[in-house]
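If you are new to this repository, start here. Below is one unmodified record pulled from the training split, so you can see the exact layout before writing a loader.
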Amino acid sequence: MTVNTVPPFRADHVGSLLRPPALLRAREDRGAGRISPEELRAAEDEAIRSVVAMQAEVGLRSATDGEFRRTSWHMDFIYQLGGIGRSDESIKVRFQNADGLIEFSTAALHVDGPVRLAKTIFADDFTYLRSLTGDAVTPKLTIPSPSMVHYRGGPAALDPAVYPDEDLFWADLSEAYARQVSAVARLGCRYLQLDDTSLAYLNDPTQRAELTARGDDAEHQHLRYIKQINTALAGRPDGLRVTTHLCRGNFKSSWAAEGGYDFVAEALFADLAVDGFFLEYDDPRSGSFAPLRFVPPGKQVVLGLITTKRGALESKDEIKRRIDEAAKYVPLEQLCLSPQCGFSSTVDGNSLTYDEQVAKLALIVEIADEVWGD
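And here is the target side for that same chain:
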């Protein structure tokens, strides 16, 4: 079995990590005006330095900053795009867990000007991360995909005076993303991940019904999203590896959608111009491995077999058995292993401890070494 020398790696992870208590206190202090922005930044720097060292110590070959400077995995990026602002309205998302339903409210977005890249988003954040990783570890930047700008609000979020034609919006959005991709590559980014819950949500008939009710073409929405992501990546520099992560929601160990990848699989795997797919596969809610039969040669599938929603450590033998099962549909050479999602997609974090998080990352490295010798 050949060694993966470029991302995604045999043992990898999605991106977000549990915020340490000291950082959570610093964020609270900053919100109350007790410390300055510079003091919060210093607290973030220290927490990121520690968590990057942890990732190297467990044997991972990529490292993120844990998304420690963000409140949420996507909106901290989206609100920095020119032309996009917070709406007075809020979006309520229903999540489910083993104990029942919980509701998450967040500010909606409104596109009230031409979408543009006003500045390179997360530039300073990535530069700091890169300064910590050294030569043995590849710094990884995670950002929401273009789809996420559209999925939350749909056509209703567009000011008709700015975008009387939705195609104009898509053209500007893809151009903004293309500029972002080129800009982070100039900063030295060689591993970029586009996080996209929409392409997983669209597998859920309930989600598609909700989109249809608001006026979207839910049966073909994934084709539009794939097209626009490809447009954004069309001019990406040589040497930049791009992956995407698909999950069905991750908030306080809860999820928002369910269903296998069957609805989007053929177009997604065949047409999306990325190097690898991080796929949620930690429980029956994610469906079978059968859709992986559409994955073409040359693309990696990162199996999210380790859950971030519970602290209990998985059985090594059971994970290996599931890797073997997936290998019936796509060659083992094209497979990798990761958690099914981030550990803390929002600042709140999932219901597990720091030590349980570290144990899961270490388990992934151990299994990958035993399966792939990598």
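Two things worth knowing about this chain: The longest strand covers residues 100-116. DSSP finds twelve helices and ten strands in the chain.
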